[in-house]
Amino acid sequence: MEVLAIKKFLVPILIVFIISLMAGSYFILRLDNISDFIVILITLILIALPPFGTYWLLIRTRTMPKLLLYLSFIICLGASYLIIPSSQKGCFNKMLVWLIPVLEISVLIVVIYGIFKSVISYRRNKQDEEHDFLDVIRISLEPKLGNGFVLGAILTELSVFYYSIIGWFRKPTVIENEDAYSYHKTSQLKTIIIIFSILITLEGAFFHFLIQSWSNIAAWVFTILNIYALLYIMGLYHSVRSLPHIITSDKVIIRFGYQSSVELEISNIKDIKTAKEQGGIGEKTPKDTYFAMLHMDSPQYEIFLKEPVLMKSSYGRKKYVKTVVFRTDEPAKMVEELNSNIDSLSNE
After folding, report:
1. Is 301 left (phi over 0), alpha (psi -120 to 50) or beta?
2. What per-residue confidence (pLDDT) applies to 55?
3. C-beta separation of 261 from 312 below 8 A
4. Quick one: which of 8, 118, 119, 152 could link to 140 by a disulfide (CB 3.0–4.6 Å)?
C-alpha cells in the first residue's frame, strides 16, 4: 500500500522538481560575473536531468510509452532556449547543431525498426490470416507508442497509403470459420468517390495556377493537400471493399473501411430491427449510436446492445455505443445468420 501511495505522487513530484529547476536556473543565469563553467553545467542539467527524471520515475516504473522520453527532451530543449540568456547561448547553440540531427535520426530509427519488426512478424505469421499487415504493425508499435492518438494517427496515415496503393491489388480477406459480408456494392460510395476525385483533380489544377501567381510555395502546398485528399478517398473505397463485415459463432465485426469499426459479442446483442430512415446529411447522429455507412445511404438494420461497447475510429478516436446502424449487400442473409447465432447461444 505504501508503494502505491508513493507512485501516486511521482507525477506531482516530477513536475515540482522540473519547475523548481527551471526557475532556479533562470535566476542563476542572470547573476553578474557567472563563470562559463557554471553556464555550461546548468545548460547540460536543463537538457539532460528532466528527461532522465521522466524516464526514471514514469517510464521505467510504469507502462507509459517511451515516446514520452522524446517529448520531454524536446520540451526541455524549447524551455532551455527561453531560459538561457542570449549572451550565454554559445554552448547551447553548439549543442543544438548535433543534438537535433541525433534526435531526428533516433526517432526515425525507432519507427523504422518497429515497422521492420512488424514486417518480419507478418511474414512469420503469414499463414495465420487473422493477422492483417496493418494489425501486425499496430501490435508491434503499441508497446512503444501506447494505444492513443499518436498510434491511431500513424495507423490511419499508413492505412491511407496502404489501401490507396496496395488496395488496387488486394482482395477481401477470407478467414476460415468466418463469414464475410460486403457492403460496398449497393452503396453510393463508389459514385461519390468518382465525383469527388474529378472535382479534386480539376479544383487542384485550377487553384494551383491561381495561387502560383501569388506564391509558388503556397501553390505546391495546396496541390500536395489535394493529392493527399485524393489518396484518402481512394484508400477509403478500397478499404471498404477489402474490410467486410465479419460474423463468427460468438462475435460480429461491423466496419466502415479503415475509418471505423466495432466488435460485438453475440451474447451482448439484445435485438436486431429494421433501421429507421434518416433525415439526411445534416441530421445529427446520436452520441451512443454508431453509423457504419455513408449518411446518404439508406440504413438497413439496427443492432441494439445490452451493454455499451467501444467503437474505434480513425486517429485513435473512441467512444462507447449502445446501438449500431449498418447496411450490407446481403441484408437478409446476414441478419438471418446473426439471429441463428443468437438463438444457438441462448439455447446452450
Report:
1. beta
2. 79
3. yes
4. 118
End-of-domain residue from the set 81, 109, 137: 109
Q: Is 44 helix (H, G, I), strand (E, B) or coil?
A: helix
Please check the confidence at residue 3 and state whether its pLDDT lies above 50.
no
Q: Are residues 66 and 206 in the same domain?
A: no
21-46: buried (b, 16+ CB within 10 Å) or exposed (e) per residue? bbeebbeebeeeeeeeeebeebbeeb
Same domain, 155 and 103: no
Residue-number span of the structural domain to which 9 is assigned: 2-109
Percent of the chain with pLDDT over 90: 7
Among positive and negative, which fits the CA dihedral 268, 143, 135, 314? positive
Query: Mean pLDDT over residues 142-161, rounded?
Result: 76
Residue 268 lies in a domain: yes
Residues 164 and 74 in one domain: no
Which burial class, exposed, middle or buried, applies to 258 when counting CB atoms under 10 A from its CB (0-12, 13-18, 19+)? buried
| pLDDT bucket at 322, cuts 50 / 70 / 90 | very high
Give a yes or no: residue 135 inside a domain.
no
- Looking at per-residue pLDDT, the higher value among 32 and 328 belongs to 328
Say if CB 103 and CB 70 are below 8 A apart: yes
* CA dist., res. 45 & res. 43, Å (int): 5
39 and 89, same domain (yes or no): yes
CA dihedral 22→24→29→32, nearest 10 degrees, is: 170
Note the pLDDT of residue 309.
Answer: 92
Q: Give the number of domains in the chain.
A: 2
Integer Cα distance of 181 and 189 in angstroms: 16
Q: What is the pTM of this model?
A: 0.64
Instruction: Let me know whether 8 and 96 are in one domain.
Output: yes
> Do 100 and 158 reside in the same domain of the chain?
no
Residue ending a domain, among 86, 109, 132, is 109
Mean of per-residue pLDDT scores for the chain: 80
